[in-house]
Structure to design on (361 residues):
């Protein structure tokens, strides 16, 4: 199998740190260029020319070599050159919890293992080490941009930027005491400071990350939404990951999680909801109307027996969606190629349609 050259958007990202006006041209040449353009061109002996933060040309290696004779060369012979992958949901430092607990459902996994472990071990040093390891794993498998929800997100952002990755990084807010916040108000204040510090950065997009509708009450969620509205920052949240979550919401509020959050005025453009395994048709209509995007995490959902998200319905409804790995603790890897493969297989299995979620999508 040809090795993946995960440098295309990495080079662009790193070059963005310098001034683009006088930046030299970098030419990645000799590999098989998978363009992912509208016509799905594949160029067997291709090249990509990059100047500053822009891709300035894609084509045959010989043609681009002639057009940019003074370019800095990267020999990609025997490799694939393609746009970097985007991991739409994860918890980077949780690579340090890989293999901590298996063979249990989400709430048991969280309450018996993850939350207690985090209470004992999470610190700025922990998240820096974990993020560095996660960055290596993501880069190795072709990821150049990822979305994250965790604690001490400022330290995660610094490690992400140092690695040359792009990140939409959400400072987690939750109602009980955690490593970086004694109260949810402390968590919100930390999120506001994080957003203020990192907004406008070339690589880091700071976000608010209310954990879920079952770990925050209505007043908390309204306050977080209001703060996000004031700053214009994105919002990341877990949604309808399990049937238990949906059943509890119906019992406590008489509404699905999506409908209850809608009643709070929570759903707005710039919101990314993770999992969505148990969304109804009415839920999907609400999310579509409000401009919410969804992230599908097949490996995590399979490991925790959460169910199979109806991603074919997502796509048919026109909801923007992507694939994520979730954290390595609930997946055991951060390999987006594996996540994409299983997303396709799971869609085919769940629908009985071998054409569901084809490889090109």
């Amino acid at each position: 199998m040809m090795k993946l050259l995960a440098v295309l958007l990495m080079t662009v990202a790193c070059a963005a740190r310098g001034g683009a006006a006088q930046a030299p041209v970098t030419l990645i040449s000799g590999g098989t260029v998978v363009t992912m353009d509208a016509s799905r061109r594949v160029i067997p002996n291709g090249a990509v020319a990059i100047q500053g933060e822009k891709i300035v040309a894609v084509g045959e290696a010989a043609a681009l070599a002639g057009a940019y004779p003074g370019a800095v060369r990267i020999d990609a012979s025997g490799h694939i050159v393609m746009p970097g992958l985007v991991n739409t949901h994860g918890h980077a430092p949780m690579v340090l919890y890989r293999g901590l607990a298996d063979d249990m459902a989400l709430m048991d996994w969280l309450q018996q293992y993850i939350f207690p472990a985090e209470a004992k071990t999470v610190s700025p040093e922990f998240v820096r080490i974990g993020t560095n390891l996660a960055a290596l794993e993501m880069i190795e498998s072709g990821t150049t941009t990822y979305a994250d929800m965790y604690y001490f997100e400022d330290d995660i952002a610094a490690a992400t930027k140092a690695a040359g990755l792009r990140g939409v990084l959400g400072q987690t807010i939750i109602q009980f005491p955690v490593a970086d916040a004694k109260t949810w108000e402390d968590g919100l204040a930390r999120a506001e400071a994080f957003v203020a510090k990192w907004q406008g950065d070339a690589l880091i997009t700071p976000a608010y990350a209310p954990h879920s509708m079952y770990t925050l009450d209505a007043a908390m969620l309204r306050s977080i939404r209001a703060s996000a509205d004031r700053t214009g920052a994105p919002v990341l949240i877990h949604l309808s990951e399990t049937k238990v979550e949906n059943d509890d919401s119906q019992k406590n509020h008489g509404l699905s999680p999506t409908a209850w959050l809608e009643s709070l005025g929570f759903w707005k453009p710039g919101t990314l909801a993770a999992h969505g395994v148990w969304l109804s048709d009415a839920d999907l209509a609400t999310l579509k109307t409000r401009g919410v995007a969804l992230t599908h995490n097949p490996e995590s959902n399979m490991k925790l027996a959460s169910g199979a998200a109806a991603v074919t319905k997502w796509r048919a409804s026109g909801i923007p969606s992507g694939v994520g790995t979730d954290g390595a603790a609930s997946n055991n890897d951060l390999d987006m190629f594996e996540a994409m493969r299983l997303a396709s297989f799971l869609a085919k299995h769940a629908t009985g349609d071998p054409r569901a979620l084809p490889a090109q999508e």
